[in-house]
Amino acid sequence: MSEHSHSMPPISGERVETDGVYKNEWGREEELNRGEEFPADPILGSTEWELAELSFDNHHEGETDPRLVPKKDDIDKRGKIVHPRRQMDRGKK
To answer: For the segment 55-71, what is each residue's pLDDT rounded down to a tens digit?
Structure first.
């Protein structure tokens, strides 16, 4: 028999542990960062919060990683994988 750990969702006034978008009991969403406190709802007061979406830094600034761009001087096309579904012929199948 396995034991299940049931934890209670964070409530207003507790510290945020993970950057993300959180949603309260009434569906109000708020983006919060680690170290901040969960805010109280203007109408409900103290409320429970649930992580709806994780936040992450997008470091590539909208540009394709240069390692993924084919070079013009790539002569050996036979050895290159130019399509994700292309398979190399490797002996017995």
So the answer is: 866 555 666 667 767 67
The tokens of 89 are what? Answer: 């012929």
SS3 11: strand
Alpha helices in the chain (DSSP H): none
* Average confidence score pLDDT of the chain: 76
User: CA-to-CA distance for 57 and 66, rounded, in angstroms?
Assistant: 19
Domain-located, residue 75: no
Give the β-pairing of 29-32 and 49-54.
unpaired
pTM of structure: 0.54
On whether residue 51 sits in a domain, the answer given is: yes
